[in-house]
Every structure is written in structure tokens, then in C-alpha cells.
Amino acid sequence: MILKADRIVTGDGLTVLDNGAVYIAGEKITEIDELATLKAKYPDSPVKEYKGASIMPGLIDMHVHVGYWRSQIDAPTYNDYKIAYFAADYLKKAFSKGVTTIRDLGSPKNLSVSINSAVKSGFLEVPRILPADAPLCFTGGHSHMGNGWEVNGPWEIRAAIRDLIKRGAQWIKLMESHRSDTPEFTQEELDAAVDECHRVNKKTMVHAGTQPAIQMCIDAGFDTIEHATDLTADQAGQMAEKGIVWVPTIVAYTQTYKHIMNNLNNLNNEGIDAVTRRFIDQRAYFEKAAATYKENFRKLYETGVKIVTGTDLVYYKAPVTPVASEMKYMVEYGMPAIEAIRSATKTSAETLRIDDIGEIAVGNIADILIVTGNPVQDIDAVENVAEVYQSGKSVYRAC
Ligand SMILES: [Zn+2]
User: Fold this and answer.
1) What is the pLDDT of residues 282-324, one digit of tens each?
2) Which end of the chain is least crowded, N or C, by CB within 10 Å?
3) If you measure from the C-alpha of residue 105 to the centroid of ligand 1, how many angstroms do you get, rounded to a whole number?
4) CATH of domain 2-57+360-397
5) What is the DSSP string of 237-301?
């Protein structure tokens, strides 16, 4: 199959190929050349032409809680079966946003690994998932009332990590702060978690929004720090030096704050879920967080810290995997569009250590997003999804 659009945005943060076409054989991109050349070489191959459109890599959402059902209005009716259906429905919708790979940041025990197993058996077609399974928190810590697994002390943490890996977790998630300046795990516990993961060649991510939690997590050497809302330029520089990737999730705080304000005077409305009610109580935190990203993002980006796109929206009826919205905030707050595209594609793939996705390149898996317009000139174009391919197969087409 040959795909042709007005341009190819490769995802490397630099290259835009005008007049290029992509040849897909099986699940891989095997050639990139001029349309006429590919047509002459493969005269029997079907050609799909997208006028006024761009070819780019499928998007990667680096922060999703797979199957986060607690904000559903009818949450009490959910058992494990219903949660699995709910998760499958959400994940299928992610294709319509151009998302082909998702990093799970903590979900009900065994859910994300079971979805991967169902995909492998051919029961389900959803984006590629890198499961974290249950996130680890200290007793009473952030997420303990949700999916969190309460563990304390270096050896309990190491044992939990071994158990998660045994069950199929590909990343390990820890929670280190929760809307206050009090860190949760001690430095000794954080150091043990990172050591245990790296010792067995697994990567680890941590929720840290405030100080001193952020500095403790930088010192421990996590692979990615989630949110890091109060990150300073000095700390971003330390992260750049140590190769720690920042997942700001601007959209989570900014969009949730808007959602809070929309519902503030509407508390008796039955349509308000339990999670939104909790967020309304925490609205001062969200307001400050949204303002902090806006004020600091440019200077943090300029330190050279690697930044990737994560969305983390969990309230009832929140947009599904709004990676395009995160990219728009990054551009609005000071990052060139072509680099925001790299953040959502190649930089994310590098962070995941998957070297054959995230870039339109010969030999890579054909995870491809076709958007109408030119996202390098206008990042809003990323929302104009025309068609999405995963491993060379069309998984979504706008009608
Ligand atoms: Zn999260």
C-alpha cells in the first residue's frame, strides 16, 4: 500500500518531506520516495492519496490511567467485567485521536496486562499499551483509595515491584506527593524502588508535583517525573543532565481547572461525579498549577530537559487521550510546533525504549496518523484526524 499526502512530518523534530510517499509492506514502512517512483516500482499496489493533508507518526500518550472508572456516575455498578468493557471502549476511542501507543500509569490490578493478552489473542483492537498495573503508594498516600497498592519500607517496595513485574508490568509507578508540600515515601524508599527497577532493566516513573518531592525524585534517579508542576529551571537542568524525562501533563491541570469552574455553581447537579466533587474541594491547587505551567513552561523547555506528552484526564466525560490539546499548550507556552510533534512521537518512543515507532522512517512499524492541514504551521491541525494506521492497518477513518 502507498500513502501520499502533501507532506510527511517525520517526527524527528526537523524534517518535513514535501512530495514524499510512504510504501507499507505488512506492518512496516519499507520505502519512502516520490509517488511516481513508488508507483513505477509497485504498479499493483493500492494508492491512497490525501489532498491538503500531512502524514505523521501515530501519537503516544505517556500518561493514561487505563480503565479509570471511579469518576463514572454509575460507578457503584462497576465490577471487574464492566471495568474491562469500559477500558476497551475508552481505548478504542483513542484511535480517533490519532493515538496508537499508550503508557499506562497505574490501573486496577491485572487490567492493563489482561487487555494486552486479549489483544494478543485477537479479541480486541486497541492502541499498544505499556502496563504499569497497580501504582505503589505509602499507607494512606496518594491513590490509596483508588488503584494504589500500599507498601512501606525498602523491602516491601522491592517485593511489590517483583510481583508487578512477574504479572507483566513494563513500567513501575510510584506516588510521591499529593496536592501538598509533604513528600510521601522517604528518600531511602525511593532509592530502593529505582534501584530495584534498574537492577532488572525496568523503567520507573513517579508522581511528584511539589517540593521537596520533585528534588527527592531527581536525586533517586527516576526515568520520568510526572507533573513536576513546581519544577525549577535549576531542577530541569539537573533532569536534562541525568536524562530524566519530564511529563508535565499541562492539559490535566488546565482542563480540569476549567471543568471545576464550569461545575462550581452547579453542585447539586446529579451529573457531577465523585471525582469532580473532590477536585472542586482542591480547586486552589488546580488554579495555581495551571498558572504555574503557563508561567514557567518556556524557561523550563529552554533548559533542554526532554519533555513528552501525557494527558491524565480522569473526570466524568473528560476528553479521551487529548494528546493534541497537550501539544497545543506546549506550543502556546513556547515550544515550536515541530518539537511538540517530536515530543508526542519520537521523544516518547525513545523514552519507552521502542526504537521502531514514533518516526516515519524506513524499517519502522507503520503507526501513522494522517491529519488535514499542516501541523508544523498550525498545531491545531493535529486535531483534524483523517485516518489512523496501526502496524500498517487502518484502525480509524473520519467519515
Ligand atoms: Zn495520573
Assistant:
1) 999 999 999 999 999 999 999 999 999 999 999 999 999 999 9
2) C
3) 6
4) 2.30.40.10
5) HHHHHHTPEEE--HHHHHHHHHHHHHHGGGTT-TT--HHHHHHHHTHHHHHHHHHHHHHHHHHHH
Q: What is the pLDDT of residues 81-112, one digit of tens each?
A: 999 999 999 999 999 999 999 999 999 999 99
Of 114, 112, 196, nearest in space to 162 by CA? 196
Compute the distance from residue 210 Cα to the ligand 1 centre, in Å: 15
- In contact, 111 and 82? CB cutoff 8 Å: no
**What's the gap in Å between 198 CA and the centre of ligand 1?**
22
| Burial classification of residue 264, based on how many CB atoms lie within 10 Å of its CB (0-12 exposed, 13-18 middle, 19 or more buried) | exposed
The ranges assigned to domains in the chain are 2-57+360-397, 59-352
For residue 264, what pLDDT band results from cuts at 50, 70 and 90? confident
Where does the pLDDT of residue 269 fall: very low under 50, low under 70, confident under 90, or very high at 90 and above? low
- Compute φ and ψ for 229, nearest 5 degrees: -55, -40
CA of 110 to the centre of ligand 1 (A): 18
Distance CA 161, CA 148 (A): 13
Q: Which three cell numbers stand for residue 201?
A: 532493566
Q: How many angstroms does the Cα of residue 314 sit away from the middle of ligand 1?
A: 8
Q: Is 59-352 assigned to CATH 3.20.20.140?
A: yes
